[in-house]
Design brief:
The chain is an alpha+beta fold and 192 residues long. The chain has 2 domains: 1-110, Ubiquitin-like (UB roll), CATH 3.10.20.480; 122-192, no CATH class. It contains 8 helices and 6 strands. A 3-stranded antiparallel sheet has the order 2-1-3. It has a 3-stranded antiparallel sheet with strand order 4-6-5. Helix 4 (82-95) crosses helix 5 (97-104) and helix 7 (131-141) crosses helix 8. The longest helix has 14 residues, at 82-95. The chain is rod-shaped and about 90 Å long.
Length: 192
Amino acid sequence: MEHPDTPTPRIYVASLSDYNAGILHGRWLDATAQPEDIERQISEMLTDSPTTRRYGDVAEEWAIHDYEGFSPFVQLGEYESIERVAALARGLVAHGEAFAAWWSTEEREVTDDAEMEAAFEEQFLGEYGSIEDYGRQVLEDMGIEVEELLGVPDGLRPYVRVDVEAWTRDMEHGGEISTVESQGGVYVFWSA
């Protein structure tokens, strides 16, 4: 399922021998393609090198010089592996910004798309206005009313409360959950 708000991620791959000769030669490539297809397109770009045509030296080295459509959470390096780029791009298209936020929480090992999707879906708990909103939702799902705790005598009710802020902060500091700020609040992830 394609996420409607995400433009197709793409990378600009440039020939380093041309770049070093003062020539900008490269191609924009669809980063959601299979890694083999991206690598084939890189080879075609290198084969078409102006420096190779002019001097006969074979262009072999390349680098990612630009990218777009990924996410503010993503910083691609010049020598990022194509497998990682493609896995990230496909996950981003399928799940949107939440996937990029999840990807940014730790160094992800590239696996097949089904395994990546399963791991993301297992760990993604949702987007909330704040981490406290997440905590209130968890308590509500457990049937616990924060304002009306069962078993507390009426005379003590005004003095007893659940400190949702401290509880969620402790869950995050204890490593049970991790959060990444989103435009509307926070993405919350279960720590595996």
